Amino acid sequence: MDASENLDQYLAEIVESSDDAIITKNLSSIIRTWNKGAERLFGYTAEEAVGQPIMMLIPEERPHEEADIIDRLVRGERIHHFETIRKRKNGTLVPISLTVSPVRNASGEVIGASKIARDITQQKEAAERQNLLLAEMRHRVSNCFAVVASLITVNARQVETADELATLIRERLMALSDAHKLAVTDPEGKTACSTSLRELIASVLKPFAGDRLYVLDVEHLRIAPDVLTPMALVFYELCSNAAKYGALCQADGGLVIAARRQGDRFVIDWQERCGLDPEALQGEGFGTQMCDSVVQTSLGGTIDRQFRASGMTAVINLDLASLEVK
Predict the structure, then answer these.
(1) 265-273: strand order across its sheet
(2) Which of 10, 85, 90, 235 is the most buried (most CB within 10 A)?
(3) Which among 97, 143, 114 is positioned nearest to 239, based on CA atoms?
(4) Which CATH number among 3.40.50.300, 3.30.70.1110, 3.30.565.10, 3.40.50.80 corresponds to the domain 123-323?
């Protein structure tokens, strides 16, 4: 065996052992070679794929992509890291990063293409999580500033000096910080402290309500560690809105929170008494969408809001089994 044969065998072994899908095709878009990485990514064996049109991997709504790739190959172009969607044997779709290079004959003519495809599902999911986290962080920061502004405005009416205002604001911000600590986890994933639902609601509510009267008629329920953060987020959002627009920003406003087991459900009834413009408050901002998503995905429930001139009410219907400490 000469050196060229050894090199060819060596290159073939590299292609065959690659984690990426490596495929060659001719200019008629017929598959010529198909490595193990392509089998893992797309589900077809080499026997099933070789000789078949590459269009079997392309979703019906993307037929133009192959024509465009062939046109660019004929011009001798190389396509780098083209992100697209392809179809597996079982019909599921997979996001991939595709690099396509022209294959030439001894005369330099383009006779086909080699494709390297990489599954980027995890990268896409990570990017989506990061975008959601950034959006939530922007919303949280904005809400924090709004809460501080609300605390200053409301509490300024209760004091006579700047020192008294500073002390009052500091106390309420520290109370808000204490509420967040209930939802903090240690590196091993255990909660820093356990709490009941009533304790959690009271802790979140305290810095928003200040000296205002409110009623907590909440049945005792010890919160499971993995739902503490979602529950805190939901009540933080409700309190934020009440402090900005509802019962907690009006001197004569009132708030009643009742919660009871109802069979295999746990129902929380949030009732604000205040003057409202119902039409002005029914839009769905990010906070509302986030709240609804958390209730549905993390707490197995629903939240139904009603806006009336007399105030806002919210009924939160949750899966009891997912809330309670086992």
Answers:
(1) 214-218, 254-262, 265-273, 311-319, 302-308
(2) 235
(3) 143
(4) 3.30.565.10
CA dist 111 and 103 (Å) reads: 6
Task: List pLDDT tens digits, range 39-94.
Answer: 999 999 999 999 999 999 999 999 899 999 989 988 888 988 899 999 999 999 99
- Cα angle for residues 44, 50, 52 (degrees, 5° grid): 90
Where do we find the tokens 């022209």? Answer: 102
How many Å apart are CA 110 and CA 128, to the nearest integer? 39
Name the residue among 25, 176, 31 with its Cα closest to residue 110: 25
Residue 43 falls in which region: left (phi positive, over 0), alpha (psi -120 to 50) or beta: left
Q: Which tens digits make up the pLDDT trace of 173-222?
A: 776 666 656 655 444 444 445 578 998 898 888 877 877 778 999 999 99
What is the SS3 assignment for 152? helix
pTM: 0.48
- Kindly list the domain boundaries of the chain, sorted by start residue: 3-119, 123-323
CA-wise closest residue to 221 among 299, 109, 137, 303: 299
Q: Specify the CATH architecture of the domain 3-119.
A: 2-Layer Sandwich (3.30)
CB atoms within 10 A of CB 90: 7
CA–CA separation, 318 and 266 (whole Å): 5
